[in-house]
Structure formats: C-alpha cells, structure tokens
Amino acid sequence: MDALAGLTPEQQALRESVADLLRRHPARLDEEAGEAGAAEANAELWRRLAGIGAAGLAIPERYGGAGAGPVETSIVAEELGRTLAPVPLLGSAVLAAQAILGSGDEQACQRLLPGIASGSRIAALAWTGARGGWDPAAAACHAERRVQRDGEADGIWTLTGTAHYVLDGDVADVLIVAASLPEGGIGLFEAATDRPGVERQAAAGVDQTRRLATIRLATGVGPPLTGAAPTGPAPTGAAPTAATTATTVGTQALTRARDLACVALSAEQVGAAARALELTVAYTKQRIQFGRPIASFQAVQHRLAELHALVQSARALAYRAAQVAASGASQAEVGLLAAAAKSCCSDVLAKVAAEAIQLHGAIGVTWEYDAHRYFKRAHGSGQLFGPPAAHLARIADAVIGPAEPLALADDLAF
Amino acid sequence: MDALAGLTPEQQALRESVADLLRRHPARLDEEAGEAGAAEANAELWRRLAGIGAAGLAIPERYGGAGAGPVETSIVAEELGRTLAPVPLLGSAVLAAQAILGSGDEQACQRLLPGIASGSRIAALAWTGARGGWDPAAAACHAERRVQRDGEADGIWTLTGTAHYVLDGDVADVLIVAASLPEGGIGLFEAATDRPGVERQAAAGVDQTRRLATIRLATGVGPPLTGAAPTGPAPTGAAPTAATTATTVGTQALTRARDLACVALSAEQVGAAARALELTVAYTKQRIQFGRPIASFQAVQHRLAELHALVQSARALAYRAAQVAASGASQAEVGLLAAAAKSCCSDVLAKVAAEAIQLHGAIGVTWEYDAHRYFKRAHGSGQLFGPPAAHLARIADAVIGPAEPLALADDLAF
Amino acid sequence: MDLDLDPADEAFRAQVRAWLTEHVPDPPLPSVNTAAGFAAHRDWERMLAGAGLAAVSWPARYGGRDASVARWLVFEEEYYRAGGPVRVGQNGLFLLAPTLFAHGTDEQRDRVLPPMATAEVVWAQAWSEPGAGSDLAAIRSAARPVDGGWLLSGQKTWSSRAAFADRAFGLFRSEGPPGSSGGSSPRNSTAHRGLTYLMFDLRAPGVTVRPIAQLDGEPGFAEIFLDEVFVPDADVIGTPGEGWRVAMSTASHERGLSLRSPGRFLAAADRLTGLWQRSDADGPASGAHGAVAARVADAWIAARAYQLHTFGVVADLEAGGTLGAESSLGKVFWSELDVSLCETALDLLGPQAELTGPERGWPGSYLFALAGPIYAGTNEIQRSVIAERLLGMPR
Amino acid sequence: MDLDLDPADEAFRAQVRAWLTEHVPDPPLPSVNTAAGFAAHRDWERMLAGAGLAAVSWPARYGGRDASVARWLVFEEEYYRAGGPVRVGQNGLFLLAPTLFAHGTDEQRDRVLPPMATAEVVWAQAWSEPGAGSDLAAIRSAARPVDGGWLLSGQKTWSSRAAFADRAFGLFRSEGPPGSSGGSSPRNSTAHRGLTYLMFDLRAPGVTVRPIAQLDGEPGFAEIFLDEVFVPDADVIGTPGEGWRVAMSTASHERGLSLRSPGRFLAAADRLTGLWQRSDADGPASGAHGAVAARVADAWIAARAYQLHTFGVVADLEAGGTLGAESSLGKVFWSELDVSLCETALDLLGPQAELTGPERGWPGSYLFALAGPIYAGTNEIQRSVIAERLLGMPR
Questions:
Q1: What does the alpha-carbon distance between residue A182 and residue A247 come to, in Å, rounded to a whole number?
Q2: Which residues of chain C are within 8 Å of residue B403 when distances are taken between CB atoms?
Q3: Would the CB atoms of D283 and B204 count as touching at under 8 Å?
Q4: DSSP string covering D149-193, please?
Q5: Residue C153 has what pLDDT?
Q6: What pLDDT shows up at residue B35?
Q7: Are C156 and C222 in contact (CB under 8 A)?
Q8: Which entry of A118, A355, C344, D105 is 20 to 30 Å from D295 by CA?
Q9: Has C254 been annotated as catalytic?
Q10: Do C290 and D294 touch (CB under 8 A)?
Q11: Are B408 and A302 inside 8 Å of each other by CB?
Q12: What ipTM was assigned to the predicted interfaces of this complex?
C-alpha cells in the first residue's frame, strides 16, 4: 500500500514506529468526558510521539525540528486518524508552527519553534470567527496601536475580538493570533496566555476527540511578527514599515498554514476512514442475522466494496497533495491540491462513517463501539478549514474559471 | 392503486378503457425512424383515443370537450406514458388548448377548440427559445404592428423569431405563437401554418417518441387573442386597448398552460417509470447469471425495491397536483404543486430509467428492448418545461423565501 | 396543500390546535430517559388523556373518541407542529394496542387499555435478543407452560423505555428449538413456529432490568433478564405458538403509520425551512447556497409526498383494506427522508453545528437517524419485503 | 498536477504530442462501425505503427519501443488529449497481446504480434455467449479435439468489432458439461475447468458473422456462429483445459488499466470544464449553477484521483507486482466516474442536449456509459470481487 503511494523505506519505517507506539500506548478517547487520568495519558502520549520526532517533522533542523516535510507529517496524521488520538499534531505542530514559519520572523521562529518541535510547548492559532471561513485575508480579531496620552504610539498593540474553532486553544502555551490591521491586511501576533483579557474556553464540540476552544481577547501584545516571507517577492513600492510588511506576510503565512493543515487533515481523514471501514467489515463478519454473518449478504458486501474503492482513491489524492507540497511547487498549486484532497477525503470519511453507523445498527449509538466516534470525527473534520463545498468553489475558481454565456441560440437556429 | 390515489370508479373506468385501447392498438415507436406506416398508425391511434374522448377531456363541453379536468387528463397521460405512445395529448390537448382557453378569447375558443377536442385538428404552442426556460413573461418571438405607407397601423401584426421545442409543431394544423409585444408583456397569436415565412422543421431530439419542432417565423398575423382571462381580475386603470389587455392575458394564459402541462407530464412520467420498472423486474426474473435469475440477487432486489418506493411517492404527488388543479385552487397553489410534481417525477423517472439500462446490460442499447426508449423519455421529459433544478428554485422562492443572515456570532460568544 | 378534509375534521383540527397551544410545556420537559423526565412525561400523558387526546382513534369505552384514521393523522400533524413531548406511552399505544384490537380478548382490552391511555401503566417492548435483532425466528427466551400460566426465562435487549416502564410485551419460544429463517429471507414461515406473544410485569419476581447507556448518556434502552417469571394464561395474546403471526400485525403498524406519522416530517421540513431562512448566504459554503435551497425544497416535496402516500394507505384501510407490505414502502421512505433532512441541515449550519455538543442538535439527530432503521427491522429487510411481496421477485 | 516523470519521459511526451498534433485527422474519421470507417481506422493504425506508436510498451522486435508502463500512460494521456481516433485494434492490443506475453509461445508472438501492431490483422473478442455474459463458467461453445487441432462449434455474442475484423479469440469448452459458478460468486474454480483459450479466423469455413444493430444504427457488436470450424493446435494459448486461468490475466487488463486509461478521464473532465465555461449561468437551471460548478470541480478531482490510483498500481507493477483484485477497484471507479461526468454535462446543457439527436453527444455518451459496465463484467461482480478478495468477506 505504501509502495503504491510511492513512499520510501524510511517513510514506511516512520509509519511503523508511530503505529507501534500507538499500539503500545493507546490514546484515551474519553478525555472530554472528564474521565480521570485521560488528559494526562494523552499528554504523555504526545510527549512519547514527540520523542520519536513527530512534533517537529515539518520544522527545519535549525529550529530544533527534523527538517522532514508534508509527506512525513501526513504519515503520522494518517496513523493518528486511525486511532482518533486526541493529540495536538494538527493544531500545534502543523497549523500554528507553519503560521510562525510563514511569518518569516526569525526571532519568533527561534524563540517558539524549538519548544513546539520538542513537544514541550503546545501552540495554537486563533484565526476565524463563529461562521468559520478560514479566509487568509480575514480574521475574527482586530489589532490597534495603543496610543499614549501624548498621542504617540508606544509600540504596544491591542487585540480585540473572539476567535472560534481554535485547535488546542484551551491548553496551548503559545498563542498566535491573526488580527486585521488598521492599515488593512492581516497581522500575526503572539499573545500571552495567562494575561487578563485572554479568556479561553473549551468548546463542547461534536467531535470529542478534537480539542477546540473559543478565545475572547481584549489584551495588549507586542508588534506583529514580521520578516521576509519564505516564498514570494517582498512588497514593492515605498519602503515598508513593520506593519505594512506584516499585512502581506500575515495573509501569505495563513494561506500556507491552511493549505498544509488541509493536507495533513486529509491524511488524518483517510486514516480514520480506513480504520472505520476495517471495524465495520470486522463487525459484519461477526454479526449473525438469519443464521449467517451479515458480511455474507451481497447488499452489505457491495456497500463496503464501494467504500473501499473510495478510500483507496482518497488516499492516492491525499498523498499526492503531500508530495506536491513537499516538492516546492507554487503556493497556488499546493493550494489547489490541498483543496482537492480536503474535499475528497472529507466526503469519503463522511460516507464511510455514515455507513458504519447504519451497519452497526443499535450498538452504533452506544459507548461500547467506536463507530460513533468516527462519525463525529467525520463531521467535525469535514467542517474544519471549511466544508467540501468551499474547497470545491476554490477549485472551480482556480481551474475552471468564470462562466461565459454560451451562444447556442444562433447555432441551433436552422 | 387507483383507490389509493382517491380515484372515482368513473376515473378508474376511463383508465381501463384507455389501457384497453392501447393494448388493442399498440403505438408504433419507430415513427421517427421513418418506418413505413408508423406515422399513419399513430395518427390513427390518436383518432381512436379522441373517439373515446381523450383529446377533449379538459376542454369545456360548450367547446366540444368532455368538461372533465386535470385528474382525467393525468389518467390518460399516465397510460400514454406507460406505452410511450407518440400522440399529441400533451402538446395539443393540454398545452395549446389551455393556452387558448386561458386567453379568454371567446371567438378563438369557439373557432379552435372543437377541432382540438375531437382530435380532427392538432394544435401547437410556439413559445420558448433554444435555451428553454418556458418563462410565462418571455417568448422567443417578437410581435410588431404592421404600418402602412401612410404611417397608419392596418390591424396586421408581424411575428419574427425562432421558437424551439415546439410540441407537435411540425404536424400541427393550428399554431399559437407567444410573442413579446412592443408595449411590453406577451401576446398570443394564431398563425397560419401554410404561409410563406412560417418554416417548420422537426427537431432530431433524443426522445424519438416525442415530436418536437423548431419554428422560424417572419409572417403577418391578426391581432393577439384577447378577452377576459378566466381567472383573476381584469387589469385596472385606463380602459385597456386590445394589446394592453393581451399583455396580461398572455402571461396568465402561459402560466396556466405551463402548470397544467407540468401536471399532465408528471403523470406521464409516473406511467413511464412504472412501466420501465415492470419491464426491468420482468427482465431480471428471466435473465440467468451464475445459475440463477439475477432477480434473486439481493443487491438487484434492493435497487429495484428502492425504485418501487420512489415511484409510489411520485405517483402520490402527481395525482395530488392534478386534484389540486381540479379543485379550483389559486394559480399560485397549482403552480407550486405542479413544480413539485414535475421535479419529483422527473427525478424518479431518470433514476428508474438509468437503473433499467444498467440492469439490462448490453441489450439495453439494442433496438430489441425498450429500455433505451424509457431512458430517452426520461431525459427529454426531464428538460421539457424546465429541469428539476428550475422547479426547485421556483418552490424555494415561493415556499422558503429569501435567506436572511443568521446572527449566530453573538449567540455563540460566551 | 392540506388534504381534503370535511368541515368536522377541520373543526377537530382547530380544537386540537387550541388545546395544544395552551398546554404544550414550555420550556420542554426534561428527557424522557431520566427518572424525573419519565415522571413528567407520564403526567403529560395523563393530561392528554383528560382532554380525550391520548388515543383519539380508540373506542370511547377505552378512553378514545372513535376518530377516523384521517382524523388521527390530523391529531398527529398538530401534535408535531406544536412540538409536543415525546409520547412516553408509544410502545403501548402504537404497538400493543393495535395487537390487542386485532388479537386480544375483550377481557384483555378492558383490563389493559384504559390504564394505558392514562399512562398509569407504561409499556416497554421486548422484541430483540442478543443474536436476534431483526430476525425474530432466532428468539431463544423461553415460555415454559406450567399450571395456569407460563414461566419466562431468557434475555431481551434494546428494550425501549424499559428502564422506567411498568410492564412489557414480547415473543417467547414455547415449542421447539430456536431456528433461523435461513438464507436472506426473513420470512420463512416454518422457522417462526412455536413463538408465543406474552405480556409481563417488569417488577415481577425474577425480572432484572439493566439500562444501556446511549451516547447521550441516558438509558434510552435496557436489557431485561428473566428467570422463571410467572405469567398467567390471561396474559397470552392470541393462540400460544402463533405469536409470530400476531406480532406481524404489530410490526406493520410500527413500520408504517404509527411511530413516524407524516406530521413528524412536515414539522421537520418546516424546521429545516426556518433554518435555511436564517442561514448565512455569505458563509463558507456560499457557492453552494443555491444548491442547498434546492435540497430544502426537495425536503419540502418529500415530506408532502410521504404525507400523500400515507393518506392513500389510510384511505385504503378505511375502505376495508389491510396493512401489508405497503408499510415497508413507508419505512424505507421515512428513514431516508430523516437522514437527508439532517444532512441538509448540517450543510446549512457549517462549522456552527460543531458547537452544539456531541449528541445534541442536528448532528445528534443525524446520528440517531442513521441508526434509526434498527427500530423496525433494518431497511435492508424492508427492501427484501418490497422486492419479494410487491415486485414478485424470487427469494 | 503532472506526475513525477523524468526528463526522458517528458521528452517522449513532447515527441508524442508533436506527432499527434500533426497527424490526428480533422475532421474525425467516419465511425469505426461502418465498412468505410473501419478501413479508415485500419489506415490510421498503420500510420501509428509507422511512427512506432501503435504499441509503445511492446518489445521492439514486435513493433514496440520497450516503453515503461508509466511511459505507456503518458502516451495514452496524450492520445486522449489530442482526441485521437478509436483504436480499432484494441481487442488485440490490450486483451490478446497481454495474454500472449503471459501465456503464449515465442512462435505465437512472432506470428501474431507484428501484423497486430500494423492492423494488418484486426482482432475481435469472443467471450460472451447467450446465457453466459459475465459468467464464463456457463460457456457452451465446444472445442472438440481432432487430429492436429480442434473443431469449434457453437455461438458467441456481443463480440465487439467482429462485423469487420479478421480474426477472433475466446474460450471454448473442451471437457465436461457447461456448468455455472453457482451462488453469488463468479469464481468457483472447479466450474471453470475444461475451457480452452483459442484463436480462430473469422473467414474460415463454418464461421458466420451476424452484426447486431446498436441504437446508433451501427454494428458495434456481432454474433458469431461456428459450425465445425477447424483450428490448428498452434492456435491454442496455454494448456488446453486451462483457458479460464489464462483468460483471467486478460480480464484483469481489460478491467483495470488497458481499455480505460486515466487519460480518457482527464480529457473528458477537460471537455466538461470547457462546457461549463461556455454554459449559460442565466439558463433555466441558473439557481443550481453554483452547484454544477462544484460537480465540475468534483469531476476534475475524481479524474486526477483515478490517475493517481492508476499510477500507484503501475508503480507496483513495475516493482514486480501482479495485477489482481485491485483492477476491480479501477473498474468500479471509472465506470461511475464516466456516468457522473455525463450527468453533470447534461445538467449543464439543459434542454439544448435534446437537440443533439438520439444517440449522439452527451446523451448518447450517458446511455453508453450506463450500459458500459457490461464490457468487463458488471460492477456488481466487481464489487463482489472487492468484498471477497480485498476485504476478506465470506462468499
């Protein structure tokens, strides 16, 4: 299977070591239910994963990471998706870390990334509002320069607003906030998590194996992260001030972070879909109705066969997106494939999870079986970073272009 | 089944007599292929159907009709749909006749309807352009008053334009043309079929059991049909001239004709779907694969069972639409149900016909079996008077209303 | 789009609507799957019964008002439109009562129905067993004949309401070994021989009830363990050994008309329409907003098509017909409609649905809608019934 | 989104593209299912062969250029992109040739392949019989051993290209009675014993070919009647009686890679995209235009996902793997993609599609796409293969 996806022996070994670790130290899926020790066990699991390098895969070696790339990240994400392990790979090691890297702010990278890469610190990115959208050119929070009594700015900025769907936002040690700037554009700010004016609340989401938080901000912070963006030319024209450079940098960094997060999430969805399908196949082999296993009913076989075909194609697309992202392709090309993978993998996981519930019947809605957890992951992950329709619209805009009227009326006249 | 749909014994007897006639005198489905005698045989079939009153069901007795209504028309349409009989019920006896009736032009009604009701004349309505649309407030042709050298109008109008998808347009004796008027609105005109400037050409459509024509007009005609519309108040304000009355009348008449045609077409689609399903069930019972009839495969059974459930609900909706149209309900209510029935029955027939082709396999694309004919009827009838999406949009506008922003952001803030 | 009803039916509708408007509790009652909620729902049923609305289609002597089936549907429509509480008595009202009308004795009807109508006695159903879900032929729980009655032993599961109910009804094997209907067909008649339909007390000696925690944390279902539980002969319905035939009449009711009346879907389609009207045309999926509008309209059509189909079946029943395989059509239809309503709602809500908590709101409805086909035999089986009985396809 | 190819592959792509741009006939050739069109397609194949492009993956000694499978896929992509003519030699090139490479003798390859590459000999396939469509175990046509060869008798049907082809290949029963694989499983190995894989001349004495008129009026298929047709031993492929095993390797090719290369879908998705760009946002279905855009994008994704899946299989093949049940995945995938591309196109065209004539344009494509799964065993059977071989579900 891995050979089919073009993975190297080293990459296959990475998969095996992550899978092995997860077998030996299974994630606790009852963390949100407040079961004793669950949160601690999952934090320990994340430290173990970080111990084999999982937290720093996509962070350059000079910042303490492994200097690997999107393909390796996708391998880990796929294994985590299989087990639904509630660890902060997506929110901290991918989304927030890529936003920081994308800002090009060397000082911030040196200060923040080593802790994220080692797993000792968890980072979160506060970005979108209650409607979702994850638009790199917009943010739920707003930034203003604080002005002294004498009318002079003192270098301190004030962030206000409420960000939703913040991955790992309630437990993060590092909080990066995307905020709209007074001069237009988006800046990225680092906010302390323990100040007054930073209220964090875990959101009781549908998917209890994914940590989401709502963060309300009314607090002072330092200036936006800034530096040469790693890709793309610097803005031309008048010599940029710190803030005007940040306007371009913020949107570029968010675009990059979103696309790479979509790539990782697609792999996670493929893992969840493949595992949910395995569990369902196993269940149908064991469940007896009318004197034989329901797996022997042709109607059941055909539904599951169809799903298997879908999972295989989703997997091909998810890994292709990772390979293209790893190849140094243009941001536009990466974005296109990330959107395709996210849309396709969301749809496939939703189909597999719904079928899993239907084929499990009554036990699918009890705690004894995990079918419902995959269903909830399907729903939650389908919406994260935008639903399939939003990604399809991006693709339609990019690939297909706008519609022009078709002058058929004349052709058809005789 | 008829009792389920609330049909009276008289209505059930009508169905039986039509079905019996079609059994004794089967329609020729090879007419468009130019087979000898086919066109004559189908013309003879239409005369026979007219002989038992089918052509004048929805025409008042004072114009030579049976004074029955949409339910009776739907019964005949359903039986015709089962056999795909290429006779002009929909185009002449429903669409064109209702447009004439809806014009309220007493003289035109007296002159034209008796021949249509007896089946001795076939009427056609030229309306929409190559894009389709069937918008009662628009027409493919335009009308202008002819002006003499002295600058005076002489009572003659000039029609120009090309109408598409004209049901029975190439064989009609009576041609009604919807045309936009210089003062706005739509008028209905009677055009001679044998004049220069009236070019008619059979369209080689997908569905060869439905006669469609393209009609190009550049011809003189008399003034638009006019009179009190049978429903709705007369226009208020300044005393109407013939033309300004016609502007309102035309759109009202087209609305009514379209809705009643959609109702009849829905019943026809139900008949086609039910028959295609019967043929497919029969085929699966006879076709042996792996030593047993494919009808015994669970996967095949479940697909056909699903279709059966769909056909039953489509049928309920189609007859409800006819009953509401018969009850004297408002045009808006009839239009809503007509749209619902047309959308639902188009979808159901499309699903049944596609499954029929798939289950027939290779023989489904040969002339020996009729599966392909139902498929083509599904496609053609689904587009006639607008595709399901257009009808759903009408319903959404009428029932659901426009979307208002949902102010959830505040509710969700904590 | 109301169906054709006579003025008396419309007057009845107005009366029901007025009563419900005044009495439906706001805020809603606590969950029926908690002890306190169950008691509150029992009180509500008593109030409904006091107004003569608990079982409108029953004869007056049992607490009904001899209403026609059409009028019963009017009641249901209004009940769902008003957002009335879950009917805690539904197992008795919609499953056991029709069975008693068809197969019970006068003594049984006189004894069982009146306290059922007032919810003095709330009934659980006891069909499924571990290893016998939709396949009643595989039932192992036994009824052993003894002097004056029967001793019940075995285990039932997925028994709805059993955690708090008073009595239960179900099938027990009184002769022969448990079988299987074999093959893909659930209806091999010889394999269903030897089952007896019995009613029993959930508080009788030898009965143990163990609630099953559902995802919402509440015991919507329970397991029932029976250890030589005595049941008198008077609590056998129909002929001993003929329980499968007796149960089938109940199953038709469960599948088709009773548990999912069209009113439920009309109300759900209205709820969806309301959601669409308030939804965000500029949201992340705005490109698909027109497509979602079409799906909302489709739901509106489908709810009405189901209503029309049901009224057709009702007209047939009132004309003396019996409910057969047609109820399988309804079953397939409503369970798919239920799922598709939820999917459309979730697409409209977008990520906001994520904030409703794990098993509530539309995501919870969707989850339970998907699992829903278990209630009355899976859709797979319904499709086999349609294929074999209505289309005449070979087993 | 091109796949990773080395510079030599890209140079090959450029060379192929240039040649095709120059040579692909415009206007297109007449239909291959007419006598004149067949001859024109035969000429085209000869031209392709002259350029070394008829069978790029074959060894050079047979007329190929020893290309890798990846490079063969590049050729296919370019061929579809350029809108090249139907490959009249496809039965031979994509079905018989792989069988000969796997099971033929050197003598057979030397004799059969070169004239196949130049289309001097065009091959028909003769699999199906009346009563044995996807079920090869039910084959009744017989091969009776005689001195130096075999006498073939019986009837074949749905034989593509047979109306004008020169030779044909298929399975014949050489031992035992015709059987059935029984049950729902198409792969009961004992029932497939006794079949022999043979090549025969369509113009030999005793052969009668009767064209089957398809909806487009053209004989896309034919029936073949055989009456004691002599075939020498040299035209048996593999061991007599082991024909089923031999045929299965061909079937894998037909289902997965060969007949429907990803290039076909990339080209079709591009065609759909072009249609969308020219389509009418103000048409009757304008409310759904955004939804159709999403479906066009979905087709774009799906064509690429299929391409990636195929490349994965190719990588596995080049690493020494064999083509097994995975080709069933491809089959299910491409036939559903084909149908959904056509449905989207028809929704875009609206009533205008009605004016394309009965079996042409997108409506015709849709009709044949629906009937398509017949070409290589119905999707139902493919799904059973996946369920049993890849998911390990019981028969």
A1: 10
A2: 276-281, 289, 293
A3: no
A4: EEEEEEEEEEEETTTT-SEEEEEEE-SS------TT-S--GGGGT
A5: 96
A6: 74
A7: no
A8: A355
A9: yes
A10: no
A11: no
A12: 0.72
